[in-house]
Structures are given as C-alpha cells and as structure tokens.
Amino acid sequence: WACGVTPQAVALAARLPLLITHKPGHMFVTDLSAADR
Q1: H/E element holding 11?
Q2: Could you tell me the residue range of the domain that residue 29 belongs to?
Q3: Could you give the number of structural domains in the chain?
Q4: How much is the pTM?
C-alpha cells in the first residue's frame, strides 16, 4: 500500500512494541541476511 495516513493509523492502532519504517530519502540498512532472521 502507498505511504500516507492509513498505514500510520494502522500502525498506531496495532500498538506494536517496535515498528521499523522509513523516512523519505533514508533507508534502513542492516547486516543480517534473510537466513539469519
């Protein structure tokens, strides 16, 4: 789904202990491979 208000509302309503998202112009980079998850 597209970025906007709906995903933000869903994330807040889910009351997750941790949420990793994005900021325009920035990326989340990790050294974990998919196999390490």
Answers
A1: helix 5-14
A2: 5-36
A3: 1
A4: 0.41
